[in-house]
Design brief:
The protein has two domains: about 25-65, no CATH class; about 75-175, Rossmann fold (3-Layer(aba) Sandwich). The longest helix has 17 residues, at about 160-175. The protein starts with about 25 loop residues before the first helix and ends in a 9-residue tail after the last helix. The chain is mainly alpha-helical. It is globular. About 45% of the residues lie in helices and about 10% in strands. α6 (about 120-130) packs parallel to α8. Strands 2-1-3 form a three-stranded parallel sheet, with helices on both faces.
């Protein structure tokens, strides 16, 4: 079956299906700095969400999410550019993503962060091969659940959430890499 606007025998397969990375607006970085700084005081989220640069950035991110639901493009280029062996991958959501910025000294020397704000466990499971397994780490730290409870990708069951985590753990344990389950 082909789409009406596709030429016959066209394929959606591509060596690099990812558009160029989006540059986060300075206002977005400023918000992250404020939220991560415990001395920053109160944050005016109304002002933040009303910022036109942040609104445009969020709109573009949502549009990209229509064709890249798992956000596979987010770390594709960075994964390909890794030159040193990966010892530990931190896989997760915004907590993990902001950990990299909040405590950069933890990351480096083979410890990498692969957090994406707003992600749920099925999205993490979708990108688990490219962002964990293919990097051959010795360990993986999985941080998930907040966005599943919030329903970011729709309603789910506790069992489905558990199965997503279980699948990631089993993939890590059964993959012929240096990863091993703790005793």
């Amino acid at each position: 079956m082909t789409r009406a606007d596709s030429p016959p025998n066209a394929s959606a397969m591509s060596e690099n299906p990812c558009p160029p990375a989006l540059e986060a607006p300075q206002a977005f970085s400023d918000v992250q700095d404020t939220v991560l700084n415990p001395k920053a005081g109160q944050v005016n989220f109304g002002e933040i969400f009303g910022n036109p640069d942040i609104q445009a950035y969020a709109k573009t991110q949502r549009e990209r999410g229509q064709s890249d639901w798992g956000n596979l493009c987010r770390y594709r280029q960075a994964n390909g550019a890794l030159s040193s062996p990966t010892r530990v991958v931190f896989m997760g959501d915004s907590i993990t993503e902001n950990w990299v910025k909040g405590d950069p000294s933890l990351f480096g020397h083979g410890v990498i962060g692969r957090g994406i704000s707003g992600q749920t466990s099925p999205q993490m499971l979708l990108r688990f091969f490219q962002d964990v397994i293919d990097l051959h780490p010795k360990l993986v730290h999985i941080m998930a659940g907040t966005n599943d409870v919030a329903g970011n990708t729709g309603p789910t069951t506790e069992k489905d959430f558990q199965n997503n985590l279980r699948a990631m753990v089993e993939l890590a344990a059964c993959t012929p890499t240096t990863m091993a389950m703790p005793p």
